[in-house]
TrEMBL record:
<dbReference type="GO" id="GO:0006281">
    <property type="term" value="P:DNA repair"/>
</dbReference>
<keyword id="KW-0460">Magnesium</keyword>
<dbReference type="GO" id="GO:0043737">
    <property type="term" value="F:deoxyribonuclease V activity"/>
</dbReference>
<keyword id="KW-0255">Endonuclease</keyword>
<keyword id="KW-0479">Metal-binding</keyword>
<dbReference type="GO" id="GO:0003727">
    <property type="term" value="F:single-stranded RNA binding"/>
</dbReference>
<dbReference type="GO" id="GO:0005737">
    <property type="term" value="C:cytoplasm"/>
</dbReference>
<dbReference type="Pfam" id="PF04493">
    <property type="entry name" value="Endonuclease_5"/>
</dbReference>
<comment type="similarity">
    <text>Belongs to the endonuclease V family.</text>
</comment>
<keyword id="KW-0227">DNA damage</keyword>
<keyword id="KW-0540">Nuclease</keyword>
<keyword id="KW-0963">Cytoplasm</keyword>
<feature type="binding site">
    <location>
        <position position="38"/>
    </location>
    <ligand>
        <name>Mg(2+)</name>
    </ligand>
</feature>
<feature type="binding site">
    <location>
        <position position="108"/>
    </location>
    <ligand>
        <name>Mg(2+)</name>
    </ligand>
</feature>
<keyword id="KW-0234">DNA repair</keyword>
<keyword id="KW-0378">Hydrolase</keyword>
<feature type="site" description="Interaction with target DNA">
    <location>
        <position position="78"/>
    </location>
</feature>
């Protein structure tokens, strides 16, 4: 049985889901800066603390031009399917620290690939007013639907189809390496989300550069802070 707060969250997600548009709201040539977002959690005494890191990449040079992070206590408990309510306050505060204004944002997490199509990448798009992409390292099974493993070739993918709708893709970014799971956040289509993701893969990781860098930064901060507790 769902709690009152979960029912409230359901209502918010339901209202926003009707506003999702899985179409590009931009021209490819206008994408100059792409941000990657990730969070890490740890305990400090009785408190749960999180670090949000945002890394901004120059799409033409594939170089990181700005990194900002913020640490704060988390006051919303973890509830499966409602992660955005836990993470959005810190994400929005971290975005305020940026000197650069990204044209597109990639999240370490899901977007449309979510039971109510409202993963963090999708939910955050409405607050940021930006096109977004979800990049997940592991598969979130919805309605008992498994993904089909793509062939062992760079760029190979299989669509994740639930209720005859494409929720996302299992994408192979390196040969002999596990796929990642790409889903639209908002104001972008799945083909463009896939193409941009592949353009941001280097030899160091199966993850696109800005998401990988944000992941590394949050892990580094977490290790440093955890040594104090």
């Amino acid at each position: 049985m769902k709690s009152k707060i979960m029912e409230v969250f359901d209502g918010i997600q339901s209202d926003l889901s009707h506003k999702i548009r899985l179409k590009n709201s931009f021209a490819r040539e206008d994408i100059r800066l792409i941000a990657g977002v990730d969070l890490a959690y740890w305990e400090e005494g009785e408190a749960t603390v999180a670090c949000c890191c945002i890394c901004v990449l120059d799409f033409s040079t594939k170089k990181i031009i700005e990194i900002k992070s913020l640490i704060d206590e988390v006051n919303v408990a973890y509830m499966p399917g409602y992660l955005s309510f836990r993470e959005l306050p810190l994400i929005m505060q971290t975005f305020k620290k940026l000197s650069n204004d990204p044209d597109l944002v990639m999240f370490d997490g899901n977007g449309y690939l979510h039971p109510r199509n409202m993963g963090i990448a999708t939910h955050a798009s409405f607050h940021l007013n930006k096109s977004t992409i979800g990049i997940a390292k592991s598969y979130l099974k919805i309605n008992s639907v498994d993904f089909i493993m793509p062939s062992n070739n760079v760029g190979a993918f299989t669509d994740i189809v639930i209720n005859r709708i494409v929720y996302g893709r299992a994408l192979r970014t390196h040969k002999n390496v596990k796929p990642i799971f790409v889903s639209c956040g908002n104001w972008i289509d799945i083909d463009t989300a896939t193409e941009i993701t592949l353009e941001l893969i280097n030899n160091e990781s199966r993850l696109p550069i800005p998401v990988r860098q944000a992941d590394l930064e949050t892990k580094k901060i977490k290790r440093r802070k955890s040594l104090l507790f």
